[in-house]
Design brief:
Two copies of one chain form a homodimer. Chain A is an alpha/beta fold. The first copy, chain A, is built from eight helices and eleven strands. In chain A, the strands form two sheets. Chain A has a seven-stranded parallel beta sheet, with helices on both faces. In chain A, strands 1-4-2-3 form a four-stranded mixed beta sheet, with helices on both faces. In chain A, helix 4 runs parallel beside helix 8. The interface between A and B is large, with 47 and 47 residues.
């Protein structure tokens, strides 16, 4: 996988999880980025970079990072009281990247995506996530319903989102093991996935547009959960 | 302005604010959308649509909607206890569209953008907002600091966001007249804008990435404000 763009490449280097990563290709200008000090860089022209990346959005830098290091779902479920985001056949790479970025910022224990009929972690997703995918545990599952069952056995509560749900999103208790389940753009959660959730919550809509973007809904839910889990007043920020 | 895409064109028609709107051009397939019943449509080829829109993302439909109907800032400030979002030189059309969509869903009274060095409402923004801009009051101001001063005189409190602020975002009182002020991607609020805010709030970061995307931050703040203003438990949703 050719990862391109300044944030994505920087986070590949910071994350140290891409063990098959090759050399960095960069324009003269991009090669002067301070975070590249001590990194071997091969100078390249913008045209050559665009050919290598298959995208004009390389910002003068890319590297062949090898395959994305997905984790197993068990690695996420065995963490203590995990906060997990699960995406039911999310289609749009930009939304996947945006959700990954917010999830990483909120300190989630993992993100679960569907193996089929869903956006996977591609270079465009790395870019949309500003490199957050390099620090986040992301697992692919063949069957999301089965994953939610395993999550329940591991002590997690699953909260799905649905436009017609009766429970306001801030009412559930998001402490302890929690899976926030978000549906695909337009269609929402599949019926069997919704039935497997312990409850369904809604985000209020006060306008004329039918629905929030799924990445906006994810941000609202994640920060509500973070608020409940940490008590934002008392816990200091950051690493 | 050539508005393209199914949601944007549908919302132009629903919004009825584009008084100079011309005829709808659509492919045979798009022309069968149920919401086009009773609307005069000129059939067009995908190639002709792409030429008209200057974008391949037309989804088979577009119309010349005329200029975007910006409102004056006073029209927003004179509403009772307004909830307002102000963007300080936001650059990215996708972020502007995403924030407009979330703001419309949250029922804000208006969105304020800078006239210069900032993304304006273009067809790409209409698309990214899923047509929400057709229902939202959007004002352009030459001087955001002066706008915040007028907002203060109108009885509003301005809450800016800053990564190093000491006040957690959920602590302020967001009832009454409120302006939520968000900065540009990367740079945040300009100093004079930050100084003009009544307080600065931060969103907690628990990961390794330096910041939330501005549209994710907007979603979190808007729903916190909505929660405080309406009591989500008691007020029924929607129009």
């Amino acid at each position: 996988m050719i990862v391109y763009g300044r944030n994505p490449v920087r986070e590949v280097l910071r994350g140290r999880r891409r063990h098959a990563a090759g050399e960095v290709l960069a324009t003269e200008s991009a090669a002067r980025e301070p975070w590249l000090r001590g990194v071997e860089v091969t100078l390249s022209s913008p045209d050559a970079l665009e050919r290598a990346c298959g995208s004009p959005e390389h910002q003068g830098i890319c590297l062949d990072a090898g395959p994305y290091p997905y984790v197993g779902a068990e690695e996420i479920l065995t963490r203590a009281d995990p906060l997990i985001v699960a995406l039911d056949e999310l289609q749009d790479p930009h939304n996947l990247g945006a959700i990954a970025r917010t999830a990483e910022c909120a300190g989630v224990d993992g993100l679960v995506i569907c193996e089929r009929r869903a956006a996977q972690v591609t270079p465009a997703v790395c870019k949309a996530s500003a490199g957050a995918v390099e620090h986040l545990r992301i697992a692919r599952v063949a069957n999301l319903v089965a994953f939610l069952e395993r999550a329940r056995q591991a002590g997690c509560w699953s909260h799905g989102t649905a436009a017609d749900a009766s429970v306001p999103y801030h009412r559930p208790d998001y402490t302890g093991g929690v899976v926030l389940v978000l549906g695909s753009e337009g269609r929402g959660l599949r019926r069997l996935v919704a039935e497997r959730c312990d409850d369904l919550v809604r985000l209020p809509l006060r306008g004329k547009i039918a629905s929030l973007n799924v990445s906006a809904a994810a941000a609202v839910l994640l920060y509500e959960a973070l608020h409940q889990r940490t008590g934002l007043d008392t816990v200091p920020d950051g690493p």
